[in-house]
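In response to reviewer comment 3 from the previous cycle, which asked for concrete evidence that the modeling workflow produces usable outputs, we include below a single protein chain processed end to end. The sequence was submitted unchanged, and the resulting structure tokens are shown without manual editing.
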Amino acid sequence: MFCNATGRLGYYRPEDHLVLAHTCTLTGGATTSDTEFLERVFAMFNDHPDPNFPSDTAHTSAWYDSGLRSLSVGDIVAINGRHYACDSHGWIPLRTP
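The workflow returned the following structure tokens.
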């Protein structure tokens, strides 16, 4: 998870300054799509971890205990080398930022 540290709210731009904020390993079913993982990550880092995955609560606690803000539009999530920008309505796939 990369926080957009450019200092403005809004969409991701390639020139934005990104800061690695958190890394974690999430488990899911064999058919779990990137979209399902992204929605789960969004919930975790907006203080709504999925109760079906107990480890998500630990990631949420670690995130907020370190003083990080909620995951927001313009932040980036990486899944196995694929990168996605949080958008106002879902996620935008990116080339490596």
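Residues 2-24+33-94 form one domain. We consider this sufficient to address the reviewer's concern, and the full set will be provided in the supplementary archive.
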